[in-house]
Amino acid sequence: MITPDFLTPNLMSYVIPPLLVVGLIALSLKIVAEYERLVVLFLGRFQAVKQPGLRIVVPGIQRAFRVDLRVITMDIPPQDVISHDNVTVRVNAVLYFRVVDPEKAIIQVEDYSTAINQLAQTTLRSVLGQHDLDEMLADREKLNDNIQQIIDKRADAWGIKVINVEIKHIDLNDSMIRAIARQAEAERERRAKIIHAEGEFQAAEKLLSAANIISQNSQALHLRYLQTLNDISTNKTSNTIVFPLPLEFIKSMGPKSLDLKDGAGQQEPAV
Fold it and tell me: 72-172: what CATH class?
């Protein structure tokens, strides 16, 4: 059997090494995006953090890890939390963080995404368990800031910056929802009664002030009588008009008026 000239061992010894070199170079080239950093280990030891661009990593000698520097959104799974007043609720949240130190994120922790997720879950349960249900529902912004500060402080050793934590939902069971509804209704009734009582008190003060003014000025009393007559005249439902007369007016009618000094019996005026 005749072997072609291009498959002879001598020729292959010249062709294979360049191909291996080309393949090695191709495997060594790494393109690092603008939002990435390349953490390089040389023989197991940290060597450098490569910046964006075309980088060379020698296979077998160097090992490279890509780290994304963009803000990462992470959902915290629903957690069963027992509040300080012994109410069981189910809470889930969302976490925003980014890597600020790629070296720490690769060397100090095995998987920073898993680590930050587990830390967020435990911190969420711990912080919410120290507050009552009313505080969870009313002061959610304060709780978000408290959780964010705790996670950010602990994750700093991993080269991670926690930007924000937001509680998404606080789920209650049906019995607790009905209890909260009854409490809200009772609170509304209490406020309505307080407002009504304050209105009655203010009205009584105004009436007392008006009575004092009228008692000090007889003309004001007569004016009030005339205004009352005018109101009665516009009322079509009754034909009877009762008009009170002051005692001073009765005394001024002369001797035929009632003897108010003796107070013994009443004498009808002659018709």
Answer: alpha beta
**Nearest-angstrom CA–CA distance, 105 and 66:** 11
pLDDT given for residue 258 in this prediction:
46
pLDDT over 70 (residue 255): no
Q: How far apart are CA 83 and CA 17, in angstroms?
A: 69
- Residue 260's identity, in one-letter code, is L
- Phi and psi angles of residue 51, each rounded to the nearest 5 degrees, phi first: -85, 170
Q: How far is it, in rounded angstroms, from Cα 41 to Cα 25?
A: 18
Going from N- to C-terminal start, the domains of the chain cover 5-67, 72-172, 174-206
Which residues are CB-neighbours of 126 under 8 A, at least 6 positions away? Answer: none
Q: Measure the CA–CA gap between 230 and 224, rounded to whole angstroms.
A: 10
Is 191 a residue whose pLDDT tops 80?
yes
